[in-house]
Structure formats: structure tokens, C-alpha cells
Structure to design on (494 residues):
């Protein structure tokens, strides 16, 4: 029986990882949002964001490529201003006219959520918790966190803007330079200047998770619905068990 | 969720524990993509080739009436002063048929939703060889991407409805009939193959400027260990005209 339990738990884990609504029977009670991250300050980066808001809970998944490697990238959901990204050609107060974070506050407003990694806090007060942000040039990020009613409503209305920071303007391979950050005078401005920005827009659909298993069918359809139903039941049982264990731990 | 443990040939399912869960997960997704040795590999899209070249096996169909992309301007789309296309958008009406003349495919469409694990359901049973519309996605002509999917191979490994999807090229025309009698025409602007474990959710299912279409199947390497193709072929197309 232990092996069966292990199998059930293993089944339940991918279902839980697929998002907070993966176990719900309908997609009606959550809001999905997506962002395509465009580069600011010629950072050379790109990325995408996929988020689901369910009540006060936000699940957010993010893929980023092409930023400075080996350096922390503070990342946030901003809310305010015109809920938009600045024109990348806007002249800022940074080196060579680079856009610094405060230069574009009219576009995206202040930090509402700090997208720290596990262990970090997500409150705006932790916006520069450098030890708890991704620190590679390309990364995937996924986290579920709780926000206030107001912030949940704003994100759900499409008001959120995701900004990723950290640009190596001079190509030295590290955050340096004479000018210090407009956010924290102990850091070079390169460490906090915005590198990527994207608006969290309402998704046109409840997006399926992962790829599509449309390779073909090895057998006729009759046994597959049965397998599907039993699989779903097993996943539900396993998930219930996992949740119970989590509750017991908390 | 790695399905690629060691790549050993494991056909006898006397496997408890993690292997059982792998099999069950595959079962949940109805992912039994059987391919036999008799069937040649499905065509792969021409990844990262900007200039269109003839398809590998010379499958020039008589139905291929679509000229090269460079000589084919979008039709019936008014241009705004800013040079942006003002896309005609339609009220919702369920799609009932899809046609890809460049690969000689015409299929009725049925509706499918999400499985309990959040993945897209796939055609089964009597409808296994019919293409399907993801009922959570916009209907053709509504803003956003309309999602159509179909198998690459069917029971026994024979070719299914989208076996040749990888041969679709940029500039090809795709048409979708709606329940209200309108036909929406699209022009393909991108054909790509993605690993299922690196599927670009936002690019495929995310917001678009106007009505678009995604046609999805799988191709590429067949993974014996998990029993299905490890890649999805995705065709991206933009609306040409809402038709009448």
C-alpha cells in the first residue's frame, strides 16, 4: 500500500503544480492574465508571464531570457500611473539617458508585489531583497502568493505591470559604474534600472497547461474515458491527501 | 514532471511506484500516441528558415492555390491612418469545419475542454480522427487566438487528420466555417515545433492584436518511454477576412 500511496502523491503533485485551479471543475472562478516582456534600456532580454488570480491568491509563472548572468534581477508587479510600460526610447536620467526605475513611475506606478523567490516576502517593502531574486540571465520563476483584496482586484482588472530590473549598461559583466541607484544609494544604478517590462493583460482563454498530447491514440476510445475518469479520481484522492498533510504541518 | 528517465524500453507494465504514476499521468492525458514502424515520420516544420523552400517530400497538392507570402497582401482589411490593421471582429459562433487546402485537409470540428489536470482534452473514440476546437478559446473572428487541435497519428499508428501539419508554410491559407454560416479566412505567419516540456503558453494562447488561429498537433521524436511525441507542431495564423 505504501507504493500505491507514493504513486497517488506523485500523481497529485503535477496537478498542484499546474496551478491553483487545476483541481477545480471549472475555470470560471479565476482570472487569467498574461504579459509579454519587452526590453528596456537595450537589455537584450525577453520573457513571458502567465498568472491566475483566485480570490486573494495569485499564481504566477514567468520565463525570462537574455539578461545579465550571475547578477540578481529584482522583479515586481507595479500598479499605478497609466498601468503601462514606458516607451523604450524615452530619455531617462541614467547613464547615456538610460531609463531609471523612477523615470517611468508615471507609466507603471509603484511596486505592489515583490516577486521574490521562495523564502522572500512579497510585500513592496521587500522590493530590493536582493538575496531573494533570481540571479541568472535566463530563468523560470513560479510562485503562489497572497495579496490584499485591493491588489487582487487591480491585477484581475489588468492593471498590473511586471518589471524586471538589472541592466549592465557598460557591458562590464557586473553591476557597477559611478551613478548610484535612485532606489537604494548603496547599489549601482545598473542593479535597479528596468530591463524588461510587460503589462499583465486579461488572457483570451483559460490556457491549457503544457503542450498538447495529440500524437495519436494507440487504442480505441472506449477504455480511454475510463482511464481518464479513474486517473482524475486518483489525482483528486492524492491531492486531498497531500492537502491534508500540508494542513497538518501548518 | 520528467518523462524521460533513462529512455529504457519499458513495454511490460509490471512497474509499481513512480513508473505506475507516469503511466497513469499519461492515461489521464489520454496521451497514447502510438506510432508503428510502418508509418513514416510526420513532416517537420521548416524551423528557422526565413525563405520558404519546397517541402521535403515534394507534396505539391493541386489544392495548393496560395501564392508566395511576399506577393500576397492581406485582403479586405481596412488600414487605419496609423498604418495598423483594423481587424473585423465577429460575434461568437462556434466553428464547425476547418480547411487547410495547402495540405489537402478538410475536417469537421467538435468541441473539447480541459481535463481535470488542466491539459487540453484530445479527440477520442469515434471522433479520434476529427479535428477539435478548444471550447475555452475564442470562436473564429472574435479577438484572440482560436485554438484547433488534431492528432498526428491515430490508432495503430496510421496517419490522422494533422499528419501533414508540419508541411504547412508561411503564407498558406486556412479557412474555418462557423455555425452561423460565415467563413473566416486566415494566413499562416509562423509554423514552429515546440518541445512539450517547453511549450510557449503565452505565445500560443495569449492575447493577440486581432482574431488569430492556432492549429496544434505533435510531431518530432517519438518517445517510446512515455508513448507519445515529445514535440507539438503549432501553426500561427492571422485573420484575413470575416467572409460572408
Amino acid at each position: 500500500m505504501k507504493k500505491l500511496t507514493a504513486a497517488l502523491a506523485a500523481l497529485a503533485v503535477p496537478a498542484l503544480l499546474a496551478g491553483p485551479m487545476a483541481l477545480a471543475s471549472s475555470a470560471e472562478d479565476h482570472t487569467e492574465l498574461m504579459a509579454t516582456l519587452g526590453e528596456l534600456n537595450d537589455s537584450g532580454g525577453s520573457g513571458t508571464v502567465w498568472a491566475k488570480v483566485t480570490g486573494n491568491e495569485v499564481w504566477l509563472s514567468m520565463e525570462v531570457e537574455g539578461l545579465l548572468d550571475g547578477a540578481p534581477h529584482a522583479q515586481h508587479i507595479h500598479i499605478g500611473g497609466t498601468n503601462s510600460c514606458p516607451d523604450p526610447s524615452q530619455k531617462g536620467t541614467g547613464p547615456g539617458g538610460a531609463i531609471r526605475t523612477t523615470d517611468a513611475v508615471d507609466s507603471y506606478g509603484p511596486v505592489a508585489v515583490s516577486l521574490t523567490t521562495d523564502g522572500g516576502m512579497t510585500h513592496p517593502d521587500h522590493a530590493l531583497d536582493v538575496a531573494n531574486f533570481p540571479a541568472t540571465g535566463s530563468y523560470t520563476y513560479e510562485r503562489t502568493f497572497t495579496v490584499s483584496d485591493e491588489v487582487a482586484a487591480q491585477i484581475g482588472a489588468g492593471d498590473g505591470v511586471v518589471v524586471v530590473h538589472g541592466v549592465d549598461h557598460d557591458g562590464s559583466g557586473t553591476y557597477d559604474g559611478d551613478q548610484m541607484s535612485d532606489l537604494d544609494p548603496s547599489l549601482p544604478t545598473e542593479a535597479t534600472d528596468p530591463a524588461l517590462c510587460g503589462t499583465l493583460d486579461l488572457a483570451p482563454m483559460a490556457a491549457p497547461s503544457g503542450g498538447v498530447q495529440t500524437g495519436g491514440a494507440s487504442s480505441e476510445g472506449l477504455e480511454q474515458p475510463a482511464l481518464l475518469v479513474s486517473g482524475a479520481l486518483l489525482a483528486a484522492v492524492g491531492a486531498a491527501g497531500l492537502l491534508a498533510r500540508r494542513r497538518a504541518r501548518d | 514532471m520528467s518523462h524521460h528517465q533513462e529512455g529504457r524500453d519499458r513495454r511490460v507494465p509490471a512497474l509499481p511506484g513512480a513508473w505506475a504514476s507516469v503511466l497513469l499521468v499519461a492515461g489521464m492525458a489520454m496521451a497514447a500516441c502510438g506510432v508503428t514502424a510502418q508509418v513514416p515520420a510526420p513532416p517537420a516544420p521548416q524551423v528557422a528558415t526565413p525563405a520558404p523552400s519546397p517541402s521535403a517530400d515534394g507534396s505539391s497538392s493541386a489544392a495548393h492555390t496560395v501564392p508566395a507570402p511576399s506577393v500576397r497582401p492581406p485582403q479586405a482589411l481596412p488600414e487605419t491612418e496609423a498604418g495598423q490593421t483594423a481587424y473585423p471582429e465577429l460575434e461568437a459562433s462556434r466553428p464547425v469545419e476547418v480547411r487547410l487546402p495547402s495540405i489537402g485537409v478538410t475536417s469537421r470540428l467538435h468541441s473539447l475542454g480541459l481535463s481535470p489536470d488542466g491539459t487540453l482534452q484530445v479527440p477520442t473514440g469515434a471522433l479520434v480522427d476529427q479535428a477539435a476546437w478548444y471550447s475555452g478559446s475564442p470562436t473564429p473572428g472574435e479577438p484572440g487566438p482560436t485554438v484547433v487541435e488534431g492528432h498526428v497519428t491515430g490508432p495503430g499508428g496510421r496517419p490522422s487528420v494533422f499528419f501533414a501539419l508540419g508541411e504547412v508554410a508561411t503564407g498558406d491559407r486556412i479557412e474555418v466555417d462557423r455555425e452561423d454560416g460565415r467563413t473566416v479566412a486566415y494566413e499562416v505567419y509562423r509554423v514552429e515545433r515546440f518541445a512539450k516540456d517547453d511549450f510557449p503558453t503565452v505565445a500560443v494562447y495569449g492575447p493577440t492584436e486581432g482574431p488569430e488561429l492556432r492549429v496544434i498537433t505533435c510531431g518530432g521524436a517519438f518517445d517510446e518511454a512515455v508513448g507519445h511525441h515529445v514535440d507539438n507542431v503549432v501553426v500561427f495564423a492571422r485573420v484575413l477576412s470575416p467572409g460572408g
Notes: The first helix of chain B runs from residue 17 to 28. Residues 1-38, 47-84 of chain B have pLDDT under 50 and may be disordered. Chain B touches chain A through 72 residues (CB under 8 Å). The two ends of chain B are 46 Å apart (CA to CA).
